[in-house]
């Protein structure tokens, strides 16, 4: 089944471009220490303020403190992408456990868990995240918690509906009939067949989360200022964008590229997993 | 559904607030405050009482429409909210209208020419717009259109002209979901038998699309408009901050920065009610658009 999915995914040009760009971004930010020293991120040099991109060895120029924008973007990418992965990961774990429990046991447990999810989903996600940040206090760690708490109901729903559709299917009943144990049914039949929608929603969720992290950073309630993060970098340079547009253009393009590519990938995966949505 | 939502969300925030480190009284008074001052502030805010009692008191106020007042500036939460609401509503409604007026025709256009260059271009363009951070798009538009070309005012909310750019920015963020929703729903209807019938009896293509496909395909689009409204309310927060519009969003951001919990909580509760009522209206609108829904309820 997965071979066919990979084949269909590979035929989708947009999705492949998305995958390639994401891989490049991840590798570039992971390998940042190999080509830029971390000291460039924080070294201030008032003599070299607002250097235009591409001059004096500053590929993306420098900001108001003379810090190298390229280094800040590369190291910022580590934080933006990693924070996105962590909060989606946490949300996914919560969603898998709660959605799995709800779907597998059904009945009262299902009802309680899903009502809790409904409550969380009734408030717009951005606002819920902000409310949790306000209650917990600002900071990167609290932001991650807030994002995953605000994000998990979506995953729980996907997991649950995925399990519910599988539970009644003939091949699961057949497996039960010839005496497979519960863990075997879960790991051999339910998980491999139900994983698709969950992966799609996690990929699209990762894009949305990176966008949220950037927004929170921009508003000053996410990753805090001297730490480079794509949204925070934009927020720091906000007052100077007017005179030096590159300070705004470059970080924004990185956020947009990452989010867009994840969206293309998510769409491609959805079409590859379920070709019916396309025809 | 609205009542459990409000109880659930407020209780949740109360609990994490009491678990979170940091004493609000100390935060409000600053580092130099004496122990006595802090004690007095705690008593004033009611923080010296147990969590459950505080919560019940708060909810008793909420039921009467009293959301308390800010910890820092001591303004009344609901009054301040009401004063700022018109700005946010103007922004949100204009953006919603823009997204619907642009998104639905574009979605129909893409669906009618499925798999053509137009279809792909529309979809990819919509995707690009929705992937751009709204605050970035807003900032760059501000720099180029307002400051360099001077076409539009950059910040503020003094006249309707001030809302043009913020509304366009906000609409761009939700346009993609609107286009895709319309397209998918149109494509589903286009395959129906009655569409083929309409075509085979010789109805002109325009009439088939407008009379048969559009009217039947509109239902999911209305749902997505309702959901888009919730998304929009999240978006206004960022946009208001970029364009310095004194609305509910900028109130919320200021309160989140200060950890002014009564203000944040009040805003979230009222917005949750808003979203709930909006969803109800969408459900009611269903019956108007689609007579089959009405029939189902025996009305």
Topology readout:
The complex is a heterodimer of chains A (about 280) and B (about 300).
Chain A: H1 2-11, H2 13-30, H3 32-35, H4 39-42, H5 69-105, H6 107-122, H7 125-136, H8 140-167, H9 170-177, H10 182-219, H11 230-237, H12 246-273
Helix pairs in contact in A: 1-12, 2-5, 2-12, 5-6, 5-8, 5-10, 6-8, 7-8, 8-10, 9-10, 10-11, 10-12, 11-12
Chain B: H1 2-19, H2 24-29, H3 35-45, H4 51-63, H5 77-112, H6 117-131, H7 134-148, H8 164-190, H9 193-200, H10 205-242, H11 248-258, H12 261-289, H13 291-296
Distance between the termini of chain B: 23 Å
Return the CATH architecture of chain A. Orthogonal Bundle
Number of domains of chain A: 1
Strand content of chain B: under 5%
Provide a count of the helices of chain B: 13
Q: Specify Rg of chain A, calculated over alpha carbons.
A: 22 Å
What gap, in angstroms, lies between the N and C termini of chain A?
A: 19 Å
CATH class of chain A: Mainly Alpha
What structural class do you assign from the helix and strand content of chain A? Answer: mainly alpha
State the assembly state of the protein chains. heterodimer
Largest sheet of chain A: none
- Secondary structure class of chain B reads mainly alpha
Low-confidence blocks of residues of chain B: none
**Biggest interface, which chains?**
A-B, 47 and 51 residues
* SSE pattern of chain A: HHHHHHHHHHHH
Question: Total strand count of chain A, please?
Answer: 0
Low-confidence stretches of chain A: none
**Overall geometric form of chain A:** elongated
